[in-house]
Design brief:
Elements (H helix, E strand, L loop, with lengths): L1 H26 L16 H8 L5 E7 L8 H20 L4 E6 L6 H9 L3 E2 L8 E9 L2 E5 L10 H13 L5 E6 L11 H7 L8 H6 L4 E4 L11 E7 L6 H12 L3 E5 L5 H10 L2 H5 L10 H6 L1 E3 L3 E5 L4 E4 L5 E4 L2 E5 L15 E5 L4 E3 L5 E8 L5 E5 H5 L13 E11 L22 E9 L7 H4 E6 L2 E6 L3 H12 L19 H37 L11 H64 L1
Parallel strand pairs: 1-2, 6-7, 6-8, 8-9, 9-20
Antiparallel strand pairs: 1-4, 3-4, 4-5, 10-16, 11-18, 12-13, 14-15, 17-19, 19-20, 21-22
C-alpha cells in the first residue's frame, strides 16, 4: 500500500515539477524560431523601430475567436498573427502592450471595434459579422489595420511596424514631385462640372496616390529657382529641358543634405501618349516627346546617361501584343526578376518582378567622394543598346555585346556643386547671384526609366462603386515605396518589407501534379482532335447522300462511329492510367516521408545510443 501511495505521490510531484519548469521557461525571454521562413522572428528594422519608442503604444487586437461563423483558416492565421504581436510586445521593452478582445455581437468590444474602424466581415451571409483587425493607440492618437487577410501575409510584419510608426511619429514628411508629365498627382477639376458629367476626381497615378497616405506630397514647378527648406525628399520624374536656375536649385538641394530620386528616361511612353493627345499632326510625326536628363548635374557627379539609347535584353524580353493580333517578344520592354536585383541592397533584395519599359543605361566614372551602387541591372550575355528612335517604330534588333547595363543606381557621399560660380542666368547681374554652397553630403537614386510608375505598367485598375481600386501586378510600387521610405520616412521599415508564406507548398508533389497534368492535357487534346476529325468525316459522308437517305447512316458512317468510340474508350483508359500513376507517385512519396519520420529517425537515435554505449564500454 505504501509503495502505491509513494508512486502516486511521485507521479504528482513529477507533474508539478514539469509544470513549474514550463512556467519558468515560458517567462524567460529565450525563444527559438525553427520555422524556415522565420515567421515568429522580428526583423532588425522592426526591432529598431520598437527600440526608439519614447511613448507607450497599446495594441488592441480584435478577433472573433468564439464565433461559430469564423472560418477555420482565419482562426489558424489569427493564432499566427497574435503570436507575432506578442513578439512585438516582448521587443517593446515595456513601451508596447498587447490587449486581445473578442468582439461578440452587441458587446462593448464590438462597439469599440466599430468605433475604431475595424471592418466587420460576413463570413456567413446568414450569420453575425466577425472581426479580425488591429488598432494602435498612443496618447490621443489612433491608427487602425481594418482587417487581416492571409492573402497579404507577405507584408504582415511591414503593415504592423508601419502602424507603429504612424501612431508614434505622426508627423508627415514633405515629398516634392517635379515632373513634365500630365496627371501624375491628379488634376484639379471644377466640382460643378464633375457633378454635371458624373465624373469622379482624377486621383493621379496609383504610386503617388498611395504616397499621399503617409506623406505630404507637394507639386514642384519645373522652373523653380529654389527648393523649399521643408522638402526633405525630391522626386524628379521625367522633367524635360530644365533650365539652369532649376538645375542649380536641385544641385543646392542635394548638397544641403536633401535626398533626390531622379527618374530620367530616353524614351517615355507616357510622354508620347500625352503628346499624341495634345499636339498637332506635325508634332505627332516628329515624335512630340523628348528624353529627360539632369545634364550638368550628371556631368559633375560622374554619371553618364545616353538619351539616344535604350537597353534591350533578350533575357528580360516581355511578351506584348504585336501586329495582326500576334504576340511579340519585345526585348526593350524589360521584365526583370530577382537575378537582376542587388542581393545586398535592402531596397531591391526582396523584389522578384519589376517592369521597366524602354529604360536607359546609367554608368559612372569615378569621382572623389562619391560611391556608386548599382541596384537593378540587365543580363550580361543577352543585352545591348539600341537606338531610341528605332524603338518608337518597333525596330529592335538585339546584338549582345557581353556588357551588363545598370538600370537603377544609388549615388551617395560628398557632392560638389556643378555651379561653382552660380548658374549662367546670373551673369552680368551681381545682385541676382545667389549664395553657392560648394559641397555637402547627400544621396541620389537614379532610375533610367520613368514609365515604371505609370498605372499602365504597375497596377490593374478596377472600377467599383467606391471608385477606382488599383491592384499591383508586379513589384514596381514596392520598389518605389522602399525608396521613399528610406529617403523620406523611417528607414527601419525597409528591412520588414516582405515575409515568406507560412503555408509552404509540397514542391515535389506539385512537380508530380504538373507533369501528370501536362500528360493529361496532351491526351485530352488528342481526343478532341480525333473527335473533330471524325465529325468532319461524318459531315463529308453525309453530303454525298441525297433525299431521304440523309436521315440514314451509311456503312462507312457506322464504321467511323465505331472506330471513334474505340479510340475514345482507349483514350479515356489512358487518362485514367495517368491519374492512377499520379496518385501512386504521390502515395509512394508519402510512404517514403512516413518511413523517414517514423522509422529512420528512431533508428538513427538507437544507433547513436548503441555506438555511444560501445564507446563508453571500451573506455
Amino acid at each position: 500500500m505504501n509503495k502505491k501511495l509513494n508512486g502516486a505521490l511521485g507521479l504528482v510531484l513529477l507533474v508539478a515539477v514539469i509544470g513549474a519548469v514550463e512556467l519558468i521557461l515560458s517567462a524567460l525571454p529565450f525563444r527559438a524560431d525553427l520555422t524556415a521562413e522565420k515567421l515568429y522572428t522580428l526583423s532588425n528594422g522592426s526591432k529598431a523601430v520598437l527600440g526608439k519608442l519614447e511613448e507607450d503604444v497599446t495594441f488592441k487586437f480584435y478577433f472573433s475567436s468564439s464565433s461559430a461563423d469564423m472560418p477555420m483558416g482565419l482562426k489558424t492565421y489569427a493564432n499566427q498573427v497574435q503570436d507575432l504581436l506578442k513578439e512585438y510586445e516582448r521587443a517593446g521593452n515595456g513601451h508596447l502592450v498587447l490587449e486581445a478582445y473578442d468582439p461578440k455581437p452587441d458587446s462593448d468590444a464590438e462597439e469599440w471595434a466599430q468605433r475604431y474602424g475595424v471592418e466587420p466581415q460576413n463570413a456567413n451571409p446568414f450569420g453575425a459579422p466577425v472581426y479580425f483587425g488591429l488598432v494602435a493607440v498612443c496618447g490621443d492618437r489612433e491608427e487602425v489595420l481594418p482587417r487581416f487577410s492571409p492573402r497579404t501575409e507577405s507584408t504582415l510584419e511591414y503593415d504592423v511596424t508601419r502602424l507603429v510608426t504612424r501612431v508614434a511619429w505622426p508627423e508627415r514628411p514633405v515629398v516634392g514631385v517635379m515632373t513634365s508629365l500630365q496627371g501624375v498627382l491628379g488634376e484639379e477639376q471644377n466640382p460643378m462640372m464633375m457633378m454635371q458629367q458624373r465624373q469622379r476626381p482624377n486621383p493621379g497615378w496609383a504610386a503617388f496616390s498611395e504616397l499621399k497616405k503617409d506623406y505630404d506630397v507637394r507639386a514642384i514647378a519645373t522652373d523653380v529657382d529654389k527648393i523649399d527648406d521643408d522638402v526633405k525628399t525630391l522626386v524628379v520624374l521625367h522633367a524635360k529641358d530644365l533650365s539652369e536656375k532649376t538645375l542649380f536649385a536641385i544641385d543646392q538641394f542635394v548638397i544641403r543634405g536633401g535626398r533626390l530620386i531622379a527618374c530620367v528616361d530616353p524614351f517615355s511612353v507616357m510622354d508620347m501618349i500625352s503628346s499624341r493627345q495634345q499636339q498637332n499632326p506635325m508634332m505627332q510625326q516628329m515624335g512630340g516627346n523628348g528624353p529627360s536628363t539632369l545634364g550638368k548635374l550628371f556631368d559633375a557627379w560622374g554619371v553618364t546617361f545616353d538619351t539616344g539609347k535604350v537597353v534591350a535584353d533578350g533575357a528580360a524580353a516581355t511578351r506584348l501584343g504585336g501586329r495582326n493580333g500576334e504576340a511579340d517578344m519585345n526585348a526593350a520592354f524589360l521584365s526583370l526578376d530577382a537575378e537582376n536585383m542587388d542581393k545586398k541592397s535592402l531596397l531591391v533584395a526582396q523584389l522578384t518582378q519589376v517592369m521597366f519599359p524602354f529604360a536607359g543605361a546609367i554608368s559612372f566614372g569615378k569621382v572623389e567622394g562619391l560611391e556608386f551602387e548599382p541596384l537593378v541591372v540587365s543580363s550580361k550575355s543577352d543585352a545591348c543598346l539600341v537606338d531610341s528612335m528605332g524603338v518608337q517604330f518597333g525596330n529592335i534588333k538585339v546584338s549582345p555585346d557581353n556588357v551588363q547595363r545598370t538600370l537603377a543606381a544609388k549615388l551617395s557621399g560628398t557632392f560638389k556643386t556643378a555651379f561653382p560660380k552660380g548658374p549662367d542666368y546670373t551673369e552680368g547681374s551681381t545682385n541676382a547671384i545667389p549664395k553657392v554652397v560648394a559641397s555637402g553630403k547627400g544621396t541620389v537614386l537614379i532610375f533610367g526609366d520613368s514609365d515604371f510608375l505609370a498605372d499602365q505598367f504597375c497596377v490593374q485598375v478596377q472600377q467599383t462603386i467606391f471608385g477606382p481600386i488599383a491592384q499591383p501586378v508586379n513589384d514596381n510600387l514596392v520598389l518605389f515605396a522602399n525608396v521613399i521610405e528610406q529617403f523620406a520616412g523611417r528607414e527601419e521599415l525597409i528591412g520588414v518589407r516582405s515575409r515568406g508564406p507560412s503555408n509552404r507548398p509540397f514542391a515535389k508533389v506539385d512537380a508530380l501534379e504538373a507533369k501528370a497534368l501536362a500528360k493529361f492535357q496532351n491526351e485530352q487534346s488528342r481526343l478532341e482532335s480525333a473527335l473533330q476529325e471524325t465529325q468532319q468525316r461524318l459531315q463529308a459522308l453525309q453530303k454525298q447522300k441525297s433525299g431521304n437517305n440523309r436521315l440514314l447512316l451509311s456503312k462507312e458512317q457506322q464504321d467511323e462511329i465505331v472506330q471513334f468510340r474505340k479510340t475514345q474508350a482507349e483514350t479515356r483508359r489512358q487518362l485514367k492510367n495517368v491519374r492512377k500513376q499520379l496518385t501512386a507517385d504521390i502515395d509512394s512519396l508519402g510512404i517514403t516521408l512516413k518511413v523517414v519520420n517514423i522509422v529512420l529517425v528512431p533508428v538513427l537515435v538507437i544507433l547513436f545510443g548503441v555506438l555511444h554505449g560501445i564507446k563508453r564500454r571500451k573506455r
